[in-house]
Design goal:
By secondary structure, the protein is α/β, with parallel strands linked by helices. It has helices at about 15-25, 30-40, 45-55, 60-75, 90-105, 120-130, 140-155, 155-160, 175-189, and strands at about 1-5, 30, 80-85, 110-115, 165-170. The structure holds adenosine monophosphate. Adenosine monophosphate binds near residues 53 and 65.
């Protein structure tokens, strides 16, 4: 099985690249942000709760997010693997993911981190906000908060996977095709 954590700050290109990786390796793409947005559209209880955090650029509480992610993974018992996009985002989520995967005789193969400088992130997110209509991509204050939340709570996860010898960094600047190729190389090596 190939289980990849695609890591990086908001706007690093995780969603775009995860879409390509899932096709190339025939694995399941699980984006917690996409699942929350789907729930918001369907006006579910989960969506309502998630929206109150997402609108501020804060993280949805761990318990809710972990439970949701686990309930998604079990939907695909025959899958060749998963690409986790936007999860884990806290140490608690990473630990819960390890315990959960272990209980299914699975494990994370690699964490691949997309490196993109902050200034480039803000420009990319504002550009995406114009096209996608995502509220959290249209307001510079919310964007700045998401980057701060990433730095305060999520960036430490690089060390978590590094200590397991699973961290691979990829330069996230360049054309979409160039970056995809770098990601394939990091996965295949
Ligand atoms: P994303 O689409 O990954 O940029 O996520 C958009 C928003 O969804 C984030 O700013 C958080 O509010 C929420 N979210 C997505 N994934 C997680 C997660 N793993 N833990 C907590 N909140 C999350």
């Amino acid at each position: 099985m190939l289980n990849i954590v695609l890591f990086g700050p908001p706007g690093a290109g995780k969603g775009t690249q995860a879409g390509r990786i899932k096709d190339h390796y025939s694995i399941i793409h699980l984006s917690t942000g996409d699942i929350f947005r789907y729930n918001i559209k369907q006006s579910t209880k989960l969506g309502l709760l998630a929206k109150s955090y997402m609108d501020k650029g804060e993280l949805v509480p761990d318990e809710v997010t972990i439970k949701m992610l686990e309930s998604e993974v079990v939907k695909y018992p025959k899958s060749l693997g998963f690409i986790f996009d936007g999860f884990p985002r806290t140490t608690k989520q990473a630990e819960a993911l390890d315990i959960f995967l272990d209980s299914k005789n699975m494990s994370i193969s690699k964490m691949i981190a997309l490196d993109v400088p902050n200034k480039e992130l803000i420009n990319r997110l504002l550009f995406r906000g114009k096209k996608s209509g995502r509220a959290d991509d249209q307001n510079e204050e919310i964007i700045a908060n998401r980057i701060k939340v990433y730095e305060d709570q999520t960036a430490v996860l690089a060390n978590y996977y590094k200590s397991q010898n699973k961290l691979y960094s990829v330069n996230g600047i360049g054309s979409v095709d160039e970056i995809t190729q770098r990601l394939y190389n990091a996965i295949d090596n």
